[in-house]
Each structure stands twice: as structure tokens, then as C-alpha cells.
Amino acid sequence: SAHVPAHMASFARKFIASVTNPKTGWRTTHFWGPVANWGLVVAAVSDGMSQGPEVISVPMTSSLCVYSMLFMRFAWLVQPRNYLLFACHFFNECAQLTQLYRGLKYESEMKALEDAKKPPTDADVPGTAAKVGFLSAIGHTLQAQAMKLPLPEAARGFLAHPAGPFTIHFWAPTWKWMLSISNLMDYDRPVEKVSTMQQTALCATGFIWSRYSMVIVPVNYNLFAVNISLAVTGTYHLARKIKSEFEKKKE
């Protein structure tokens, strides 16, 4: 037990040193970018505890699951290595998988109820196609083979870029586009089913990460663009929600 205080003191010193580090501490987007992402975890936990499964958007939650899986790898490889970002996406993965299970279970139950109400003569209606796919990272071997091809200089520069298509720095942001696409797919989602917490977190993530993407190594223009898009689509849904609440108060 005598070792416990020493370990705690050592951890506290490391934590304080990390938070006050002038290059990656609280005065930089290396700190606030991951902190903004914790909003997604808080939103998922809050919705899980206080909201019914009807507010869960399955396309968005599916995208968030893959997004966090890819960004755990991204956080490990980016310079400086971002442990706060890694931890955030680990917990977000757990929270979003729980929400995805709730959402799929709810949709399955609703479909079963609808099917039970159908007359026996009704023809089955085919289900909707999958809305999200999986993009896998491509290894250095394929990159080396591609660079041997007679390509224009611009194409070679793109393929060889540190954040090019053969790296996690490309695929993690590329998958993040699914968050914006999911928001666009939900453009006419009933406003009462829009999660205020989730959209607030997505907005904050979009605005802060658009800055973070420009200060990491390698600089990531794909990540910058997707976060601007995410901020815009999140703001759209928040505006719908706020307008609806305002109109209710006027009645």
C-alpha cells in the first residue's frame, strides 16, 4: 500500500506535464480536438440513459462505430501521438456499439409489429439496402507497386503523400465523410427524433477539428474538409431542433 501514493503522485505529475505541455497541452488544438470528441461519448451515454431507442439514427451510429475504430489507429500514428484521442475513441466505440444494438433491436421490433399487422395476402416488402460500407487501409506494399507505374507527377505526388490513399491518415477522414452523409440522409428526419446532444457534439467536433487537422503531422486537408462539412450538417440539424422548440413555446 506504501507504493500506491507514489504511483498516484507519479501519474499526477505526468498528467499535469501533459496538460501543460506548450506543444500539445490545453492551449493547443491537440488537446481541445480530442476533448470535443468526448462530446460524442457523453451524447451517446446521455441518450442511452434518458432517451428511447427511437431517437437513434442507425446509419449515423453505424458510421460512428467504424469512425472510432479507424481513428483509434489514426490517434496512434499521428504526430504527436494522441493518447487522449485514442482513449476518447475507445470509449466512443463502446458507447456507439451499445446504441447501435438498441437501435437495431428497436427497428427489428417495429418491423415485427408492422409485419404482424399486415394481411396474410400482402407481399413482403424488400428491406432497404445497406447504407454504409467498409473501407480498409491499403498497405505500403501496394503503394510501392503503384509508384512503379508510369503516372503523371501530380498522381505520384498524391499517392506518395504522407496522408495519401495508402495510409490511415487518408482512410480515417474519408470514413468520417459518412457522418456528414448520414446527416444529409437524415435531412428530413422527424425533428423529435433528432438527438440534440449528438448534433451538438458533432458540431463542436467539426469546428475544432477543422483547426486540429492543420496543425498535426502530416497536415490533413481531407480531414479539414470533412470537418467543415460535419460542422455545417450538424448546424443544420441543430437549427431545425431549435426552431421546433421555439415554435412550440409560441403556441
From TrEMBL:
<comment type="similarity">
    <text>Belongs to the mitochondrial pyruvate carrier (MPC) (TC 2.A.105) family.</text>
</comment>
<keyword id="KW-1133">Transmembrane helix</keyword>
<comment type="function">
    <text>Mediates the uptake of pyruvate into mitochondria.</text>
</comment>
<dbReference type="InterPro" id="IPR005336">
    <property type="entry name" value="MPC"/>
</dbReference>
<dbReference type="GO" id="GO:0006850">
    <property type="term" value="P:pyruvate import into mitochondria"/>
</dbReference>
<dbReference type="Pfam" id="PF03650">
    <property type="entry name" value="MPC"/>
</dbReference>
<keyword id="KW-0813">Transport</keyword>
<keyword id="KW-0812">Transmembrane</keyword>
<keyword id="KW-0999">Mitochondrion inner membrane</keyword>
<protein>
    <recommendedName>
        <fullName>Mitochondrial pyruvate carrier</fullName>
    </recommendedName>
</protein>
<keyword id="KW-0472">Membrane</keyword>
<dbReference type="GO" id="GO:0005743">
    <property type="term" value="C:mitochondrial inner membrane"/>
</dbReference>
<keyword id="KW-0496">Mitochondrion</keyword>
